[in-house]
Known about the structure:
The chain is mostly beta strands. It folds into two domains: 1-321, Alpha-Beta Complex (Sulfite Oxidase, Chain A, domain 2); 325-437, Immunoglobulin-like. The chain is 9% helix and 29% strand. The chain is built from seven helices and 24 strands. The protein has helices spanning 10-13, 26-34, 38-41, 56-59, 144-150, 194-201, 234-237, and strands spanning 72-73, 84-88, 91-94, 112-113, 129-134, 140-143, 153-161, 184-193, 209-214, 243-248, 251-252, 262-264, 277-283, 298-300, 316-318, 325-330, 335-337, 343-351, 357-363, 371-372, 374-375, 385-392, 397-407, 431-437. The structure holds the ligand Nc1nc2c(c(=O)[nH]1)N[C@H]1C(S)=C(S)[C@@H](COP(=O)(O)O)O[C@H]1N2 and molybdenum atom.
Amino acid sequence: MLNEAPPRDAAAESAATPSADRPVTSRASRRLVLGGSLAALGLAAGGLPRLSPVSPAAAQGTPAAAPPKGPQPFDYPGKDKGLTLLGDRPLVAETPANLLDDDTTPIAKFFVRNNGQIPEPIKDVDGWQLKIEGEVDKPLTLTVAELKSRFAPQTFRMVLECGGNGRSFYQPAARGNQWTHGGAGCAEWTGVRLADVLKAAGLKSSAKFTGHYGADPHLSGDTGRDAVSRGMPIEKALEPHSLIVWAMNGEPLPHIHGGPLRLVVPGWPASLSSKWLNRILVRATPHDGQGMGGTSYRVPTVPIVPGSNVDGKTNFTDLTSMPVRSIISAPANGTRLPAATRDVALRGAAWAGDHEVAKVEVSFDAGQRWHAMTMAKPKNRYDWVRWTGQITLPSEGYFELWVRATDSRGVAQPHVATNWNPQGYGSNPLHRIAVLVG
Ligand SMILES: Nc1nc2c(c(=O)[nH]1)N[C@H]1C(S)=C(S)[C@@H](COP(=O)(O)O)O[C@H]1N2
Ligand SMILES: [Mo]
């Protein structure tokens, strides 16, 4: 019943009592102090660094629910082995920030998130059927071939981001996949407007919400249960960038990303972007499928004590727009630069859910001073902002580089994960990398 959530971690259940001697930042700052010695940095002679104690996750507290052996490589046909496996049942992998260095995320580097089993590969792609039912005048069954021929195709480059991206930074650990910053990617999606298809079916005045269904079996194999089935208000469905897509980066939509057909609902948690899409139910009332209600994709409207055991029934609301986030994609965390280096070129990306990115800044002195980066113009709404810039370091030594984006409303990323919730949605603290000069 819980979408981003494997069984509850017992440690995450306890500790509902706040204590002044354990402020959220204490572990992080202690680690930074300890990070001063090369031994602590894991800098073995000659070997350049997985800077474990200063890796972004560790710098903000080692996630209690992290796999025991540390990051596991991802081995899947067509996928870059540099992705990090977060779980194999269901199959989940995130993209390290340094692999999000392309303007358009290649399929090989695009994160993977499944809630259930992966369905059998589909041979007759053009014959795949989508049903539109519920509060419509004329229920429709459309094949992919009909979608392609009957409606005007659209291509947009848009961010897809898991609602749990950033979850590993919550303390105590929130239950679910322990994403760092890599539950996101930005691809070129080709398909048709969901709005055009809904209008062809004729929306009744009672059409207020959608419910989405995909063909993937529930993890248990129980045919009576959906792996995930989320839905949204009709206004979001009718936005011109909400698409039913069959192609990704100009290629037929890969099976692992939901081919032959998926939704792409940009700006909101990617769980709405149903893969292996075969049915959209138009509803008069909010959808009640797998992943709706309770604490699923829901966040508190009144802040709660971190670690609270709450059911999400009161003072919770569905997560809609994802919060502003930025990453440094180059240099990679742990880069060692020649001793004489002072000018360091930086690259990265920033995005802000339904909002625009107004500003991207980098600090190399733990946030005392911020330096503005140059932002490229996004291709279209919901595209990410690629940014570049340079900082001039004062000396050789060990530096942490922090990036912070601010959205069009003036809301910046916080230094720590805020608004704790049981399943850990909407965490967007600063991305931090470490470099060693000399
Ligand atoms: N049918 C189906 N659609 C789904 C999911 C799923 O498990 N089944 N996972 C959702 C979630 S939680 C995310 S984050 C995205 C991940 O998309 P990707 O695997 O293409 O990166 O797909 C969404 N669509
Ligand atoms: Mo997700």
